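Supplementary Methods, section 5.1.

A reviewer requested that the exact input to the structure prediction be made available. We therefore reproduce it here, unchanged from the version used in the analyses.
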Amino acid sequence: MDLSSKSVLVVGAGIMGAGIAQVAAQAIRGEGQQVFLHDAREGAAVEAKGKLVVTLQGLVTKGKLTAQACEGALARIVPISVLADARGVGLVVEAIVEKLDVKRSLFRELEDLVAEDCVLATNTSSISVTAIANGLKRPERLVGMHFFNPVPLMKLVEVVSGLHTEASVAAAIFELSKLWGKVPVHAKSTPGFIVNRIARPYYAETLALMQEQAAVPEVLDACLKTVGFRMGPCELMDLIGHDTNFAVTNSVYEANFYDKRYVPSLMQRELVDGGMLGRKTGRGFYRYPEGVPPLPKVTVEPVEASAAARAAADDRHGGVVVQGVHIVPTDGRTAREWARDLGTNAVVVHDRVMGKGALAFATAPGLSAEQRAVAVAHLLSQGLEPCEAADTPGLVVARTVAMLINEAADAVHQGVCTPEGADAAMKMGVNYPAGPFEWLAGWNVAGVVALLDRLDAHYRGERYRVSPWLRAQ
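The structure derived from this sequence is encoded token-by-token as follows.
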């Protein structure tokens, strides 16, 4: 099935729909496809094309698009006021409101208009493709084609197959997505698909750490940006809007029959209830327009200048000993637990090092100011920026990355995607610096499992249970 020569109907002329129309009209060696653009709101499709005129002409001004290509793409986008004007199309892409009954109604109407071989695609980000197809005369031709915003810039397309979807239909959308300049990945229709599911721990672990007062938002953000994330989770939730982020978390939680792994945050609900939604209201975790404040300064007692250089490796914990102070990388044990196991209070546990910059550390009870200064001096000598946190298992980066790996492993275990698909989805869909299985390759299965098991033992809930896929490796 080849869709590259077919005309396309995009239903929904909002930001997503207009972006999809632009991509379809510009793609395939610049020749594009005929695109009909429809919206239920009168005049919306015409308004959307007007905005596309400004967008594409702006690209011409910047030298990123020729005037000829601009004119051609705009000529191929035709606003229509009634769906019947597009009855000859070979592909429909729906990008309307995220409500199951509205989507079902639209596709049932479309079935009476388009030919039997026309492919029906939904851009839903959270609704079951199987559920949307229920009740259609030919449910096998419905497939998910989930783009990411802004559509012209974001490369990922999740090609989502429901229980009814024919393999040939999913394959056709996969190939068309590549011709449209995208990176497609196959996904099974399960709550959150790939990206919205695997990404949950990035927010959830930070919210859990703040709930137990482990660190302030700017420290948590700085630690995770050191890994290579473009925005810390607190910044990102403020940008997305806490109402939106909380709603998605609730949706995934409910759709997974209230699995504790996806439990929403009381702290985020409080922000939503208080109208502190982030940038759009001027206040979330941070105040705007000021944004993220500077990191709190770590106070350091005077220490001998050469102290940091006299570090001896210690095979018992994979860390070093400096002037009698054990400086230990986290394996899920708290500093208190390390002190018990080593028989000394001279213990500082630091987060997993995955880049130069902010690094969380915690101290054992009874550590002296002088011993703390020795540990801080050592970390500074390694080009790191030590940020003190409460003595929590896994600290910030280690527990977050481990949980992202664990969620991706479960998705693979359940047949939602492949490891390669998970890596591509997270890098292309939400700009992660690496994919979860790339992180796993740079760590090791035993280390990740041990850390998760210790988190599970510490918190005694279902949240940190290890994926069977990881157990089997």
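The domain at 8-189 is CATH 3.40.50.720 (Rossmann fold). These observations are discussed further in the main text.
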